[in-house]
Amino acid sequence: MEIPVMVGAGLVVIGVGIGIGKIGGSAMEAIARQPESYGKIQTAMLIAAALIEGIGFAALFAVS
Amino acid sequence: MEKLLGEFSLGLFIFQTALFLLLLFLLKKYAWKPILGAVNEREEGIKNALESAENAKKEMENLQADNQKLLQDARLEREAMLKEARDLKNKMIEDAKGEASIQASKIIEQAQAAIASEKQAAIADLKSQVANLSVDIAEKVVREELSNKDKQLKLVESMLSEATLN
Amino acid sequence: MQRNRIIKLTTLFILTLSLFSCNLEKEDDATIAAKKAERKAYIQHHLQDSYDFNLFSYEKDNGEKAHIGFPLPVILWDDGLKVFSSSKFHHGETVAEVGDSFYKLDHGKIYKTDATGTISYDETHHATNVKPLDFSVTKGVVMIIITGLLMFLLFRGLARSYAKNGGIAKGVGRFFEPIILYVRDDIAIPNIGEKKYMKYMPFLLTVFFFIWFLNIFGLTPLGVNVTGNIAVTASLALLTFLLTNFTGTKDYWMHIFDPLGSSLPWYGKLILYPILIPIEVLGVFIKPFSLLIRLYANMQAGHIVLMSLIGLIFLFRTWMGGAMSFGLAFAISLIEILVALLQAYIFTMLSALYFGFAAEEHDHHEEAHAH
């Protein structure tokens, strides 16, 4: 595959990584603030992370 | 993308779909329905048991309150009855006392009347005895006088001293 | 190609590591390259479905390769039904002769060929031979059947133990009952709603345990990679897609074809809708597609990483390197156990979410008041 396409996919993956990292970080902060709503925060976090992850995969498979 | 499509195997896809649908159908019929049913039933049972326990507790409380009330009533009644009895007793004592005193005074009166009438009778008897004595004395005196003057006098004197009036 | 890149990256990593690991045995570049290629092919082979159930292979003293396992039936549709045992391929080394046609395995696929087994390639290294329609009972199919049987026996037993013990689970059911309850109380009810969740429960439970069990089987030395196969995940995602759209309420379709509702006059819609409706319609297809890709890619990536780490042991061939790769592989295995559960959970969770969209019913009167 051509180099620019691969670099583009890499950029997408970086973005996805930052996004999921931010979600995880915010979720941890939220849990620290409100430990009693741990379950709800975790569910919301997983859904958001999964949706972003999808974009990352889409980029990777578009390259391959 | 082209790699993904190259890897896609129609045979496996069809097998997977058919087997999964079969599994879904079998599990739905033989596993999930009975399991979820049993779990739901159990949860309903627990809920009902809790509810009935709550109800029993409430009923118990009501019963206890009723008991308390009944006890209170009984106590009040007992007190009222006791009071009445005490009053009655006092009244009876009062009554008895009054009657007794009346009776007593009556008896005393009667006794006094009897004493008075006895006295009257005794006086009358004495009077008649005195009269008889006087007649006897007079008779004796008359006889003595006839024999001796001195003797007569002496006799009167002795007679008189003998016959002391009471 | 993406997989190749991952493998290339891992091998690069391996190479840099091997620079400062004291490799006692001096090997020339050619043998290293050959070994690398062999390992790559091995990993590639493992990730694919295969026509025989190979438990392990080893090299005999005389250099001959021995495979321990059992063959599976190959069923082809190529001018009539052709059924034969996969032992005829001899693990891709020979041409299978069935009637008057010849078939050969190439990179895990069956191609029609001639008696000598020539396979011609185009310039992108793709075989140009004819591929017959293939309905073989492959390793993946066998594992699906085994998992299905296991699930059926397990949950049938649980259902029976409820009936027998008056609503109390016995044995292994005690372990699975809380998970079933978790799927119901934390996945189905919050996403679909108290009223309609019962309709979707069988699918959610089946999909959850199916994916979970197959993921766990993928971590065993049996070397199966069923949930990392695009056909399997595509089938699961397709079922979610069909269930979502066939149970969709009026509100669900209204949301797709009239997303703004009464908040916009018709002339506004005339401008916006040519953009909005295609996006919404695309979303209907992208949702299950992301499900498919996510499960596939996660399992695939997990297997590649794990196998590459195990492959490191044979590349280092040193005391330190072996211990290090073993430790790494062990740690990744533990993470993979978590990922196996997590991916099953995510698939079920997102399916439930999509069912929730399909089953939702707005109260339009209240909405009208709100606007």
TrEMBL record, chain A:
Keywords carried by this UniProt record: ATP synthesis, Cell membrane, CF(0), Hydrogen ion transport, Ion transport, Lipid-binding, Membrane, Transmembrane, Transmembrane helix, Transport
Protein's UniProt keywords contain Cell inner membrane: no
Membrane topology annotation: Multi-pass membrane protein
Keyword Transmembrane: yes
Boundaries of every V-ATPase proteolipid subunit C-like domain copy: 8-60
Membrane-crossing residue ranges in chain numbering: 6-23, 44-63
Database matches in Gene3D superfamilies: F1F0 ATP synthase subunit C (1.20.20.10)
GO terms, molecular function: lipid binding; proton-transporting ATP synthase activity, rotational mechanism
Feature type site, description Reversibly protonated during proton transport: 53
Signal peptide extent: none
One of the record's GO cellular component terms: proton-transporting ATP synthase complex
Localization per Swiss-Prot or TrEMBL: Cell membrane; Membrane
HAMAP family: ATP_synth_c_bact
Record-stated family: Belongs to the ATPase C chain family.
Known role: F(1)F(0) ATP synthase produces ATP from ADP in the presence of a proton or sodium gradient. F-type ATPases consist of two structural domains, F(1) containing the extramembraneous catalytic core and F(0) containing the membrane proton channel, linked together by a central stalk and a peripheral stalk. During catalysis, ATP synthesis in the catalytic domain of F(1) is coupled via a rotary mechanism of the central stalk subunits to proton translocation.
Protein's UniProt name: ATP synthase subunit c
